[in-house]
Amino acid sequence: MIMPFVRLLAIYAIVILAAIAWFNRDSISALFASPEVETTATIEEPPASEQQATPLPPLTDLESGWASARNAYWDGDTRTAEALYRRLTEAYPFEADLWGELGNLYYSSGRTLLAGDSYLTAGRVALQAGNAEQAKVIVEVLQGFAPTKAAELQSLVDVIAVDTTQ
């Protein structure tokens, strides 16, 4: 008599837990997701003969520096492009698009930790500039490979949204 009752309770408990797990699947899946790992180990360094530093053009203004960085990237010279983007982000730290393009460079070369940091900075800068929509787009990008950084940026977006409604 007691055994069918215990079985019934067990079935109800399993169904309730399954429903809870279904509605919290995003947070639960984060428990089983692989940690964010920078994948630079799979990228070989070019031979020393190819590592000759290309002289960087002088940084006279944002537009010409940005054009030089883009041209270097498009020409396949990622070392020069990275150096130029880093100089530009130091000189113009409040340009969200610069941070985003630096993130693109890192992501395309498999350096996801650096890409995540750059995208997160781009989102923060966009929020500081009052561009919450751009930050929301960056959250979506980060969710694909850096969920903790996406959550951090989303919390900042949420704070800004609460501030603007008050």
Low-confidence stretches: 37-52
Q: CATH superfamily assignment of the domain at 60-166?
A: Tetratricopeptide repeat domain
- Which fold does the CATH topology of the domain at 60-166 refer to? Serine Threonine Protein Phosphatase 5, Tetratricopeptide repeat
What best-fitting shape do the alpha-carbon axes yield?
Answer: elongated
Total strand segments: 0
- Ends: how far apart? 60 Å
SSE order, one letter for each helix or strand: HHHHHHHH
Strand residues, percent: under 5%
| Mean pLDDT over all positions | 83
Q: Based on the structure given, which CATH architecture of the domain at 60-166 is correct?
A: Alpha Horseshoe
Q: In words, what does this structure look like?
A:
- This protein has 166 residues and is mainly α.
- Helices cover 71% and strands 0% of the residues.
- It has a domain at 60-166: Alpha Horseshoe (Serine Threonine Protein Phosphatase 5, Tetratricopeptide repeat), CATH 1.25.40.10.
- It contains eight helices and no strands.
- The longest helix has 22 residues, at 2-23.
- It is elongated.
- Mean pLDDT is 83; it is low at 37-52.
Which key features would you list for this structure?
mainly alpha, 8 helices, about 70% helix, elongated
What's the topology here?
Layout: H1 2-23, H2 25-32, H3 62-74, H4 78-91, H5 96-108, H6 112-128, H7 132-143, H8 147-165
Write a short abstract of this structure.
This protein has 166 residues and is an all-alpha fold. It has eight helices and no strands.
